[in-house]
Specification:
12 helices; transcription regulation; Arc Repressor Mutant, subunit A; WH_DNA-bd_sf; about 45% helix; 2 domains; flat; DNA-binding transcription factor activity; WH-like_DNA-bd_sf; transcription; alpha/beta; D-Maltodextrin-Binding Protein, domain 2
């Protein structure tokens, strides 16, 4: 198994790709050219791939190096999102802007929005709690947080909301599951009669599944097993324990890598909207309003104008 590269080496490699010069990359990284060269050589040994073409006139990325550089950029972006998310969790008790979000939003969308917000307002302290959609609604209703982010399709009494992203649930199985080679879609009746690996009651994903099937006049059977996070559900599916309906955001990387397979469905609408919510009597202002604007602008084509609000 390839030993994992360190973040500083990946950052240096990306700088080489950006500036097309090891010397300039070293300057940008605050180190010397010989030290940068040694670090890249160590990275090459660790990965078992030649990254640079070295010549008397300079060093340039190889074809493999350019490909790995593009992957490294994505890794560094994910690390940035991780740091922003962790910082928000650490600041929760002393936050100037207090947030709560369902797992899907917190894992895949909020770190980007918070990062963009703090670049605009570097002195802002943002606190984040990660809970299921039902608990997020309760905190907003009790005035304990400024903004909540949920994925539940239920009507929100006493709350106002704004769509910040669109998502759909995907039926996924392990590559060895009998449905992985299925050529016909799974219909609503068969889906309702299948015991799925499921999130716990109160989660937005669970609510979406139940509401979608009820809309077709069907009641889903009891889950095969209930788990407390999308990550746990995804891992259980990957072991071959059974099928599950999960957010497209959650399983995109698994589907691309082939560790999970999508099974087509028909006769049931599994699309959903992800919403920001706040108390009816307290319109978002200041940092909260700015976060809403950023979320609407950066939600990967799932934007809606801020005027699209519902009681």
């Amino acid at each position: 198994m390839t030993e994992l590269p360190d973040i500083d080496s990946l950052r240096l490699l990306v700088l080489v790709g950006e500036h097309r010069s090891l010397t300039t990359a070293a300057e940008q990284a605050g180190t010397t050219q010989p030290a940068a060269s040694k670090r890249i050589s160590a990275l090459e040994r660790r990965l078992g791939v030649r990254l640079l073409d070295r010549s008397p006139t300079g060093s340039t990325l190889t074809a493999d190096g350019r490909l790995i550089c593009s992957w490294a950029e994505r890794v560094l972006e994910d690390v940035h999102l991780l740091v922003e998310g962790v910082n928000a969790l650490r600041r929760e008790r002393t936050a100037q802007l207090s947030l709560a979000a369902s797992l899907t939003v917190a894992e895949h969308l909020l770190p980007t929005w918070i990062g963009d917000l703090r670049r605009r307002l570097p002195d802002l302290h943002v606190g984040l709690q990660v809970l299921n959609s039902t608990r997020v609604c309760e905190l907003v209703q009790h005035g304990e947080i400024d903004l909540g982010f949920i994925e539940s399709p239920r009507r929100l009494r006493g709350l106002r909301s704004q769509i910040v992203a669109r998502d759909r649930l995907v039926l996924v199985v392990a590559p060895g599951h009998r449905w992985a080679r299925r050529r016909t879609p799974v219909g609503a009746a068969e889906l309702a009669a299948t015991a799925l690996i499921s999130r716990e009651s109160g989660s937005g994903t669970r609510d979406t599944v139940e509401q979608a099937l009820l809309a077709t006049g069907l009641t889903p059977v009891e889950p095969l097993v209930e788990l407390g996070s999308a990550t746990a559900v995804r891992s259980s599916v990957a072991t071959g324990a059974g099928p599950a309906l999960l957010s497209e955001l959650v399983v995109a990387a698994d589907l691309a890598a082939g560790t999970l397979r999508e099974v087509a469905t028909t006769g049931v609408d599994l699309r959903r909207t992800l919403r920001a919510i706040w108390h009816t009597g307290a319109a978002p202002s200041g940092a909260a309003a700015e976060l809403l604007t950023l979320a609407a602008r950066t939600s990967s084509g799932r934007r809606r104008k801020s005027g699209n609000q519902h009681d």
